[in-house]
Amino acid sequence: MDPVRNPYAPGAGQRPPELAGRDREVRQFEVVLERVAAGRPERSLVLSGLRGVGKTVLLNAMRSLALTRAWGTGKVEARPDRPIRLPIAQALHAASRELAPRHRDPDRVDEFLGVLKAFALQTSANERKGVRWRPPYDVPAARGRADSGDLETDLIELFTAAGELARDLGVGIAVFIDEMQDIPSEELAALCGACHEISQLGVPFVVVGAGLPHLPTALSASKSYAERLFRYVSVGRLDRAAADRALTLPAASEGVEYEPAALDALYEVTDGYPYFIQAFGKATWDVAPRSPITADDVKVATPEAEAELAVGFFGSRYERATPAERDYMRAMAELGAERGDGPVATGDVAALLGRKPQSLSPARDALIKKGLVYASERGHVAFTVPHFGAFLRSQPT
């Protein structure tokens, strides 16, 4: 079949042609937007799940939904080596630019930009290093608002000013934060504190975060009330019906069908994970000679899809690990072979490697910081990437 017409999109954060299986999450966010804009109390939202389940895609879909409601929006991708003050300022600057053309009072817009500038100027020269964006220079920085240097206090004042600007238009502002688990714990606590305060004030402002499975735990550790502050949504693999829709609807738009046995085979190899569905769907399309796509086509395409995943999805992550960290992950994979690649006890990893658990703490902590594993519960770790254990077991030692 024509590869130019291939409808599948296996890319990081790239929206698939059919956002299957996420209707419930989208409807939940629609309710949040409507309630907040109407001045009703509502919680911000946190999405969590393994890599490859489509968290970033869903985050972007929610942002698009907010834009259709005429909200102001901005997006942040958190990084462990970068404080969040300047990225938050950039995101809210983008949101204000979306609202400004519709605002009847330019002075109100300038007032907000002054608060934003005061907030941004609290960053150190080291934080601004390598960042091209600068606060708006055509307005003076506000004095006494969002400029205390205390992040939580300044976030409250900035979020309040942003929400008030949006309220003038009968809408709200939403900030979307990807890789939220990478925000340092002190800054995460400040962000939670600010969200708590503005929710009590009824400001039309929401935060939508996305991150790895341990993000809810990290939030609760930063502020004890965080478990009640956000609406938590676990994003997982697709059920069979949704996985079939993700494959068949894009193909149907190109006049192509699947045999039932082909869909059986694809669900077996992808396990319902959205990224794998796109990767295997693309490879199968490229090798299939004609419609309908058959189970034999899937069989031919599987080695090609697996080879691409081994380099891009799995291999790139494996290469980031040091030899000691790779030993730790291989031990996890070996133990996981007996337990369905679920969480494994850190004590069992140490026993398999013939080491004391304390001596392996640096390797484990480094893997957590690199986003390769996460602490699923006390004393247990698991891979952040689905099927990563199987990948490691397939590699030569």
UniProtKB/TrEMBL annotation:
InterPro entries: AAA_16, Cyt_c-like_dom, P-loop_NTPase, WH-like_DNA-bd_sf
Region: Disordered, residue numbers: 1-23
Pfam families: AAA_16 (PF13191)
Keyword Iron attributed: yes
Gene Ontology molecular function terms on file: electron transfer activity; heme binding; metal ion binding
Cytochrome c domain ranges (all copies): 167-274
Keywords: Heme, Iron, Metal-binding
SUPFAM superfamilies given in the database record: P-loop containing nucleoside triphosphate hydrolases (SSF52540)
Protein's name in the database: AAA ATPase-like protein
Lineage: Bacteria, Bacillati, Actinomycetota, Actinomycetes, Propionibacteriales
